[in-house]
Each structure stands twice: as C-alpha cells, then as structure tokens.
Design goal:
Blueprint (H helix, E strand, L loop, with lengths): L2 E6 L7 H9 L3 E6 L23 E4 L12 H16 L4 E4 L1 H9 L3 E14 L1 E2 L7 E11 L5 E5 L4 E6 L2 E4 L7 H7 L2 H9 L4 H28 L20
Parallel strand pairs: 1-2, 1-3, 3-4, 4-10
Antiparallel strand pairs: 5-7, 6-8, 8-9, 9-10
Amino acid sequence: MPRALFLLHDHQALAGPIGDRLAERGYDLEAFLIVPPERWAAPDVPRALPSLCAYDLVVALGAPWSVFDERIQPWFEAELAELQAAVAAEVPILGICFGAQALAVAHGGVVERAPRHEIGWMPVRSSFAVLAKTWLQYHFDRITPPPGARVLAESARAVQAFSFGSALGVQFHPEATEALVALWCDDAGRAELVEAGEDADALLAATAAAAPASAAQARELVDAFCRGDFRHRDTPPRGTSGAPLPW
C-alpha cells in the first residue's frame, strides 16, 4: 500500500477532504506534528523530521507563522532540506499555504509580506478548470515562485498555484472544513481576525455554506495531482542544503 505523509506544522491542521480522497485512492495516511500545542506561542522547538523520501506522496500543510519568522529556525531549515531532497527524488509533494511557501523558498523562490491579506472565500483564476474555483484564503504573505516554476493560478492579489517537477504549491486551502476553520477562530484567531478587520462569525458562516462544494473540489484536485496533470518537463529548480534561509 502506498504511503502518504501529512506534515503538520501545528495542531491546528487537519487533512480534511485531501486526506479523505487519498485514503479512497488507497494511500496509507500518516501524520507528523512538528510544533506541539503547548509550544504554539513559542515554536522554536528542536525537531528531527522524518525523511520525506521514505514516502510515496507528501502533503505539507499550513501554519500560523511566516516562513521568515526566526522562531521556526530550529526545524524549518531541516524542512527546507527535506523538501529539496524529496523533489530531487521526484516524490509528489503538495504544499498548501505555508507548505507552498516552504516549497518556494527551498528552491529559490521568495516569500514576503503582502500589501493586503487574503482571508475568506475568494475566486481563483486559472486555465486549469480544477483550480479555477472559489477557495478559502487565509494568508498575509505572497509567493514569488522559484525560477523555472510554472504559475498555474492567480488571484487579484497573489500567485495561487505553481508547479515544478513533482511539486505543486497552492496558496489557498483545499483542505478547509467547518471543523478546521473553527479551530482557526479560537480566541487567538478571533483576535487576529479583528486586527485584520475581518469577522470570525462571518467567516464561519461562509465556510458552512461553501464547505460541501469545496470538499468536492478538493477531491478533484487530488485526482488531478495524482494523475500528474500539473507536471511539466522543464528543468525543475534545484535547491541545496546550503541555500540561504529567509531570515
């Protein structure tokens, strides 16, 4: 049975319909949590990561921190090296939000604070019908993809999907469910939303309405990713373990 690893950067991460569809496709799902709940506010934990090359597919999920946050340095350097090795070995990697940003940085791309955040259910433009949907956004940063990567989708404010080699990065959240957004709207999340000028209750209500369609879209995205629909034959960017870190 093929093995799929979900890389959870913090406890407020769920596999959602992405995990459901991979299980339906016959994958044995495993999860690895990097920052435990009690260290959520102080994520500078020393953590040895598993070898991503030991898996048949990897999904790197989101995180509440930016990739340039110095507090994550004790484990993020190792994650960059693992992502580089996995892409070099042609392991299919799906990076979501922070996971996409890590993929980009590991291979020579740039992540920076965006002029405006994107939070809520927003349309994405793409020539790929499976990507050109309304997806949940929750991010404050934006990605410049690595040299040699292909931009697959955009919004009015940011790159939303890119691919190179075996890797696909998406800025939006195809794994979103009501349960996941409820986790994000806890006390700290509500404070963050208020500071950003957003309404947590409105976001929860919009998620309740959008989640069923989003789950179906996520399953289609998994199928397209597993078929290799987003792969292209250009030379993928090559990172090195000595690549400069983003801080």
